[in-house]
Write a structure and sequence with these properties.
Strand order of the largest sheet: 2-1-3-6-5-4
Order of helices and strands: EHEHEHEHEEHH
Strand content: 15-25%
Shape: globular
Number of helices: 6
Number of strands: 6
Radius of gyration: 14 Å
Largest sheet: 6 strands, mixed
Length: 152
Amino acid sequence: MAVITLSDSRTAAEDRSGQAVVDALQSVGHTVVSRHLLTDDAEPLRQLLERLRDDESVEAIITTGGTGVAKRDLAIDVIESMLDVTLPGFGETFRRVSFDEIGPKAMLSRATAGRLGDTMVFALPGSTGGVRTAMTQCVLPILVHAVRLAQR
């Protein structure tokens, strides 16, 4: 698994959301083979996703950050432009679950998922609470099955 945090303000030491992804993956026995911290810029993200897509040791990529509606939130635009298959139900389910926790603000998230080559991609919000919700209720319950399907 690979984890990418997109932030213009966090350092690696302050990356609680990326660490929450790593912790959630490791808690159920997954190995994180790659972890990155990028600013929310399109081209470096595109290049990293291409590199990780081609790395056979990476079965899934989980990003955190850049899923909102601010002008700097470019992650979803980049990711969705690269996906071979999108999973609209992932974002819909995340927003439904989040709505129960935080109310109407959940509608401001563009969290998404899909397949990039043989690799699953899950794009999660930057908030640590949103990451925990997404990991426990949306990503981990389908991760192994989604990876198997993506590699067929």
